[in-house]
Amino acid sequence: MPPRPLPQLEQINAEIFTLTYGSIVRQLIADFEDLDEVNKQLDQMGYNIGVRLVDEFLAKSKMGRCSSFREAAEVVGRQAFPMFLNVAANVTNWNTDGTECSLILADNPLADFVELPEEYKGELRYSGLLCGVIRGALEMVNMDVDARFVQDMLRGDEVYEIRLRLKEHRAEAFPFKDDD
Amino acid sequence: MLGAGARPNRHAVNIVERPIPKTRAEVSTVAFSAYAYLFSELISYAMDRAASITELEERLDKVGYEVGTRMMELLSYREKTVRRKPEVLDVLKFIHSTAWPFLFGKPANDLQQANAADDEYMISDHDLLVGRYISVPRSYATFVPGSIVAGIVRGMLDAAGFPAHRGGGGGGGGAPQKSTTILVKFEAAVMARQAALENARRG
């Protein structure tokens, strides 16, 4: 499907975005001593954002329904990421089933000025919010996915890689039964 | 497309040696709605943890403070002539006319000295960008989304050497008047230093 020209959303300075996110992560770390909890909170916040973000995305991009997970992943990487974060994500590493793929990001505005201290490098998923956003957004279009960071530049890898795994593609369930 | 000669791995270099975009034009942007979502999640989270409206505002203020200190450093680095700002009015004008457009795309609407005290100043913005999609329910009537911006201002002042705190309320205004006013109250040491400067200039 040829990519449609992306609508240009109103822009805001990326640095205030980066710094605000960093400040939020810092607050979370101060509130919950346990990094695992912080990861969960970030994922939850991302999920909440995702369920609303998908509405805006569909409205602004005027996309039709995606027929498959493969198509959905392409849309996330090629249209949604550039639309909201002005970065492109490549979709690669499909498994044979077509149920798992990787989103590769060379650039991540959430983590621009960030350096993780040693004690956090192991556990903290700094950009975990993004995984939550993807999960929330796709759940609203009936695809249950599991999104995890497998490569993270903040821990020394070359790129950011999110592994997306489709758990279930639910059929569109009409909320009302006809015979009620 | 990721090629062999793609963007160099920024994180491979020590963080303080990484290049920062030097001019305004090079700074990248993100969609405003991305920021709006992030901000609204922050408010949700803070609302959950806070026991009162004051605590909620304090949490936002703290988040803004961290942003402000770093923002000040970034902005000072980008200025054409790097000069310290010794005077209270200088730093306030910087915030009003340089920082605000950088953060929000337009200069702040108003900078005034409060009548009551000479260590209080007010910066007003008639349409605060970050608060645009935040609606405040009646039960939180005194809550001001601008608290985060007040924190940013406080952080910037602190980083510039002018410790201050919020005096009084942030003032959201009623329905027709949507402006946000940030009240800045400088600490006594700052005012003493200001007075000494003025004396030195006069004498």
UniProtKB/TrEMBL annotation, chain A:
Gene Ontology process terms (BP): Golgi vesicle transport; macroautophagy
Gene3D superfamilies registered for this protein in UniProt: Trafficking protein particle complex subunit 3
- Transmembrane annotation, as ranges: none
Keyword vocabulary terms for this entry:
Endoplasmic reticulum, ER-Golgi transport, Golgi apparatus, Transport
InterPro entries linked:
Bet3 (IPR016721), NO_sig/Golgi_transp_ligand-bd (IPR024096), TRAPP_component (IPR007194)
Question: Taking the first listed entry, what is the main subcellular location of this protein, grouped into a coarse class?
Answer: endoplasmic reticulum
Can the keyword Translocase be found in this entry's annotation?
no
UniProt-listed Pfam families: TRAPP (PF04051)
Q: Gene Ontology terms, cellular component aspect?
A: endoplasmic reticulum; Golgi apparatus; TRAPP complex
Q: Where does this one sit in the cell?
A: Endoplasmic reticulum; Golgi apparatus, cis-Golgi network
Spell out the subunit comment: Homodimer.
Q: What does this protein do?
A: May play a role in vesicular transport from endoplasmic reticulum to Golgi.
Q: Which family does it belong to?
A: Belongs to the TRAPP small subunits family. BET3 subfamily.
- Full protein name: Trafficking protein particle complex subunit
TrEMBL record, chain B:
Protein's UniProt keywords contain Transferase: no
Keyword annotations from UniProtKB, A to Z:
Endoplasmic reticulum, ER-Golgi transport, Golgi apparatus, Transport
The lineage's top-level taxon is Eukaryota
Task: Tell me any Pfam family this protein matches.
Answer: TRAPP
One GO BP on record is:
endoplasmic reticulum to Golgi vesicle-mediated transport
Record-linked InterPro entries: NO_sig/Golgi_transp_ligand-bd, TRAPP-I_su5, TRAPP_component
Chief localization class?
Answer: endoplasmic reticulum
Identify the GO cellular component terms for this protein: endoplasmic reticulum; TRAPPI protein complex; TRAPPII protein complex; TRAPPIII protein complex
As for subcellular location, the record says: Endoplasmic reticulum; Golgi apparatus, cis-Golgi network
Query: Which CDD domains does UniProt cross-reference here?
Result: TRAPPC5_Trs31
> Its quaternary structure?
Part of the multisubunit TRAPP (transport protein particle) complex.
| Name the UniProt record assigns to this protein | Trafficking protein particle complex subunit
Q: What is the lineage of its organism?
A: Eukaryota, Viridiplantae, Chlorophyta, core chlorophytes, Chlorophyceae
